[in-house]
Amino acid sequence: APDTPSTEALDVTPDTRKVPTELIAREVARRRTFGIISHPDAGKTTLTEKLLLFSGAIQLAGTVKARKSGRHATSDWMEIEKQRGISVASSVMQFEYRDHVVNLLDTPGHQDFSEDTYRVLTAVDSALMVIDAAKGVEEQTIKLLNVCRMRATPILTFMNKMDRETRDPLELLDEVESVLKIQCAPVTWPIGMGKNFRGVYHLLRDEILLFKAGEERADQEFEVIKGIDNPRLTEMFPLEIEQLKMEVELVHGASHPFDLDAFLAGTQTPVFFGSAINNFGVREILNALLDWAPAPRSRDASVRAVEPVEAPFSGFVFKIQANMDPAHRDRIAFLRVCSGRFERGMKVKHLRLNREIKVSSVVTFMASSREQVEEAYAGDIIGLPNHGNMQIGDSFSEGELLQFTGIPYFAPDFFRSVRIRNPLKIKQLHKGLQQLGEEGAVQVFKPVHGGDLVLGAVGVLQFEVVASRLLNEYGVDAVFEGTSISSARWISSDDKKALADFERSSAGANIAFDAANNMAYLATSGVNLKLTQERWPQLTFHATREHA
Ligand code: GDP
């Protein structure tokens, strides 16, 4: 009988849940959610592994790397990922350290696949920038830092590979300041480099941490010597210590002292030197993350700001991953908790669809496996299995109408037109592209005047991923071809007449609509884009759009 209350309706509801606010406040305060940003090969994988080693989340070195090279299948849910040995899909690792709960959001490092990376950064509260000290600031670092800047995310910096011949440390700081436009506050300073790398000097603690090579070290076995003037140092390496004293004087004179507020405002980055592979300098980074990086903060949800310590649960989806388990057709929506306490089995409202769902099966991502979550707080990431009804940017709450902001789509740099070999599969093609578009795997544009669909991506590898998934998941053999399109801009204007005129003009032939039905202009060249913008000053051409 339809009116009989189901057992679900008898379950805990928001009104009857008594969640002590002190408990929530305590849990929020001990959480740190961060991501690592780096150019490929700077050492992100190695550092991730060492961070997990410290926490005891993994016992053995090599686990993360093995996953990366495809020998473990934890995150290698797709053939293409295995073939290339790169992490196409990001994942989440949670571990405890010093009574804190750390959520490390992994990001795909490959330069050809960065849209996902961008969006993962909207779900973190701080970021760790890893720089190869031999190479300095690289292209991908610049792009990722710019994304962090959109939300003024606090950044810690790790200068890696000091056991190699690197560039001059002062020059490295200078490059970070001038290229990335962020103030550097060195916290540790290297003593020598390469074969003569002796360790680091902690500028705030006046301590020297002696370097010892060794890959498998899990714990801090490095000797600490107190005081830069300690005679033992002069005995051990007279040359390097003289050099260090000179440099420290320079550093004190020329660089900025660490300023917590400037760091939290995203305008200054504390800089650490070390060697991830030798597990050297990694603990300092982890401690800085716990001591200085922010716990979850309030988030804009359009109607108001939501505080993490509020009792009602809320959160938003920043990433969708399909078919992690090839045996199921499920997709997993990665939700960042923004407030309250999530409990398995509770009911939450999917606000875009105005639908209440009971979340009984949720996954969290421990370092080595996917596990069931029992509870989660602001800063935590939970995985919601679904059949395609959840989209990037969707907000969830216990009922209040919220829409978390700040999940960006980036104007693609690469374009392909897509057609199919078998016209009978047109429906499957559209369904597949619709879903892959919603998932954020690729951006799909439908030209207003018909013709083949146009796919846009931030990196060309995305096309390969889409082609392989269309074939494997939707049985569609699609042909991707080059197009004359070179860039895309989303268009908006308060001037309805100007918009209508634009649609009717000759430029109107280049209009297309994306998967969320936003109007975009597909430009054939930089010049074409510039001219069109000049000709239509009443319109705004956006290089990013927010999911709404
Ligand atoms: P990712 O692409 O940023 O994830 O970089 P990886 O962690 O895979 O590291 C790239 C390469 O650099 C690997 O061969 C690592 O062994 C090496 N590497 C990482 N950290 C260090 C380090 O501190 N010193 C040296 N010499 N090599 C390192």
**Mean pLDDT rating:** 84
Distance between the termini: 38 Å
Please give the oligomerization state of what you see.
single chain
* Weakly predicted, low-confidence segments: 1-16, 59-63, 65-78, 80-90
What can be said about the biggest beta sheet? 8 strands, antiparallel
Give the helix tally.
15
The fraction of residues assigned to DSSP E strands is 25-35%
Would you count the extended β strands for me? 33
What percentage of residues falls in helices of 4 or more residues? 25-40%
Structural class assignment: alpha+beta
Work out the radius of gyration: 25 Å
Q: Quick one: overall form?
A: globular
Strand order of the largest sheet: 28-25-27-26-30-31-29-32
Bound molecules: guanosine-5'-diphosphate
Family: Belongs to the TRAFAC class translation factor GTPase superfamily. Classic translation factor GTPase family. PrfC subfamily.
Organism: Noviherbaspirillum saxi
Pfam family, one: RF3_C
GO molecular function: GTP binding; GTPase activity; guanosine tetraphosphate binding; translation release factor activity, codon nonspecific; translation release factor activity, codon specific
Overview of the molecule:
- The protein is of the alpha+beta class.
- The protein is 27% helix and 28% strand.
- It is built from 15 helices and 33 strands.
- The strands form eight sheets. An eight-stranded antiparallel β-sheet has the order 28-25-27-26-30-31-29-32. Strands 2-3-1-4-5-11-6 form a seven-stranded mixed β-sheet, with helices on both faces.
- Helix 12 packs across helix 13.
- The structure holds guanosine-5'-diphosphate.
- It comes from Noviherbaspirillum saxi.
- Residues 29-297 form the Tr-type G domain.
- Pfam families: EF-G_D2, GTP_EFTU, RF3_C.
- This is Peptide chain release factor 3.
